[in-house]
Amino acid sequence: MIKEIIYRFLYDFAPFCMALYFFGRYVAKKNPWYTVCGWTMLWCCFYGIFARYLVLFLPFLCGFLFLFGYGCAVLKCGWKQAMSISALLISILYFANTITGTIIYIFITRLAQQAERMEIFFALMPLVFMAAAFTAIFRVFFHNHRLTARSILSFPLLFIGFTEQVVLYCVYGDTIVWNAETGLVYPLVSSTEILGLQIVACIALASLLVAYCYLEKAAQAEQENQLFALQTKEQTAYLQQVQLHQQQMRAFRHDIRNHLLMLHGLLQKNEISRAMAYLSELEMVSDALADPFHTGNPAVDALLSSKFSAAAQQNITIICQMQIPSDSQIADIDWCIILSNAVDNAIKACESLSDDQKQIVLNGKRHGKFFLLSIENFCPEGQDTFCEGIGISNIRAVVGKHRGTLEAGIQDGKFMLDVLLCISHQQSDI
Predict the structure, then answer these.
(1) Could you tell me where the DSSP H helices lie in 269-415?
(2) Which 3 state secondary structure label does DSSP give 406?
(3) Please, are residues 93 and 130 in contact by the beta-carbon 8 Å criterion?
């Protein structure tokens, strides 16, 4: 009785439990052990009741639908993501069972006398193969690069799995005839050829994932390059506006002596009202040209002033304590890409917050040959993860250009972005 329970656990419960566990890891969602065990028990009960009716590829299809339901109902995945991950998991699960089953079949037909002693080994073999396959796929496709799950990926995965199941059913069927004296009577097939076919199917499955991953990365890189080029073009136009602003400021300063002479003349004639009106006009022009930020870089001052105006319209406060070194070898366009993306992301994050949390803090300070920039803002309640978008990717590209580092994360309800830049490109400065 105990032996039968152990075998049922190894053959029925453990594989599906492992598939549900890796489902959570693949989609980076919390997946409590009791939920995994509960759904696995539900699957075992379903399969135990309807096993006699599940022939051909129906077990494969039912397992796929069950995993799909788990992804949508428990892990709260989108239907496209749940469909593709379910197709991948059920394909791996059945491939592991069928390949190890073929290996065991070959072993039994050749060394039937040793088969009884190897029962536990035969029961553990699919689990080991399955765990290795799940882990390898996680590390290659979901660990450093989160494979975007799309519904179109489900169809080739399911096709490979369905085909493999149909071929095996047509070859082996559901009946094996064994004679104690002569050995295997039915089916008389070449198991090594079947094993070769299964290995080819596994290679096809892996090749599909690799090809899809490369295509996805290429498409994403192309999109990022286009957006980066567009943003660079916009920043260049913005810098031209900054230069125009600086020219206007220099022109105003150049004419200040003439303005003072004009005021002196009006006061000498005792035309106080005209002098006050003229002074008010000068004050308005001065306020229009003045920047509320003084970082030591005119382009950055103008950029932050523009962002400050956009933030003020939504009651968002920007606190800036940053002084850019005059000897910094970082181009104005790079400063603008870093700060515009960072501040835009922070403003967008603050839009849905209460007024007392609508605050963005920028700090920048020189440390020897390096410049440390930190930007922080509050996050919506309950948010503990973030998705790196195009903005952060553009910042990371500029940071890499200047041999720096970037760290981003959420801590104590705040999003923290820390950028370390090398402000000197001389080799001896590093």
Answers:
(1) 272-289, 298-312, 332-350, 390-401
(2) strand
(3) yes
Residue appearing with tokens 């003349």: 265
* H/E stretch holding 5: helix 2-8
- Among the residue ranges 103-107, 311-315, 340-344, 403-407, the one predicted with the least confidence is 103-107
Dihedral over Cα of 313, 314, 319, 320: its sign? negative
CA-closest candidate to residue 405, choices 417, 414, 416, 390: 417
The set of residues, in sequence order, having a beta carbon less than 8 Å from that of 332 and lying 6+ positions away, is: 239, 242, 297, 299, 300
Q: Residues 6 or more apart from 203 whose CB is under 8 A from it?
A: none
Helix axes 298-312, 191-254, angle to 10 degrees: 100
d(CA 269, CA 48): 107
Nearest Cα neighbor of 334 from 365, 367, 306, 373 is 373
| Three-state secondary structure call for residue 108 | helix
Q: Which two tokens stand for residue 132?
A: 């290795």
Confidence of residue 187 (pLDDT cuts 50, 70, 90): low
Residue pLDDT, tens place only, 6-58: 767 777 788 889 989 999 888 888 888 888 888 888 888 887 777 666 666 67
CA distance 363 to 388: 22
Which helix (H) or strand (E) segment holds residue 256: the answer is helix 256-268
d(CA 401, CA 425): 10
CA distance 264 to 279: 11
CA distance 285 to 251: 12
